[in-house]
């Protein structure tokens, strides 16, 4: 049972944090470059040698495969993304041309594009 006094002193605070982890490599480097250009200082990147963790508090991370392909100079599809995609927190939204992770838990469900 949760101590009410402790719970009142440490209330949960809603936020718009989302994040993904990617296996380190040229694909992850390209995705980081694209998201840094889009989000600037709102993108936090943690390099863990074998993987990178990308986080933001703006409520959404979106990877558009055509942009990654253009930067890499070769094809980049959902299947290619799945090879380097390790984990996430937030609500995922997956399509043939992009992957997004939203803080809004109804994004893409209730007609809310997020």
> How many helices?
4
* CATH fold label: Phenol Hydroxylase P2 Protein
Radius of gyration: 16 Å
- Give the full name of the CATH homologous superfamily: Monooxygenase component MmoB/DmpM
CATH architecture: Alpha-Beta Complex
Contiguous low-pLDDT stretches (5 residues minimum) are none
Q: In whole angstroms, how far apart are the ends? A: 36 Å
Looking across the biggest beta sheet, what order are the strands in?
Answer: 2-3-1-5
Number of strands: 7
Structure description:
- By secondary structure, the chain is α+β, with helices and mostly antiparallel strands.
- The chain has a single domain (16-102), classed as Alpha-Beta Complex (Phenol Hydroxylase P2 Protein).
- It contains 4 helices and 7 strands.
- The strands form 2 sheets. It has a 4-stranded antiparallel beta sheet. A 3-stranded antiparallel beta sheet has the order 4-7-6.
- Helix 2 (26-39) crosses helix 3 (65-72).
- 19% of the residues are buried.
Summarize the model shown:
By secondary structure, this protein is an alpha+beta fold.
Keywords:
114 residues, Phenol Hydroxylase P2 Protein, 4-stranded antiparallel beta sheet, 3-stranded antiparallel beta sheet, 31% helix, 32% strand
């Amino acid at each position: 049972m949760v101590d009410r006094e402790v719970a009142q002193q440490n209330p949960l605070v809603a936020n718009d944090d989302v994040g993904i982890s990617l296996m380190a490599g040229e694909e992850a480097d390209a995705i980081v470059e694209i998201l840094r250009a889009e989000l600037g200082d709102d993108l936090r990147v943690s390099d863990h040698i074998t993987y990178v963790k990308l986080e933001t508090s703006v409520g959404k991370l979106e990877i558009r495969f055509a942009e990654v392909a253009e930067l890499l100079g070769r094809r980049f599809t959902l299947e290619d993304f799945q090879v380097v995609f390790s984990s996430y927190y937030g609500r995922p939204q997956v399509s043939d041309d992009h992957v997004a992770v939203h803080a809004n838990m109804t994004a893409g469900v209730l007609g809310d594009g997020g």
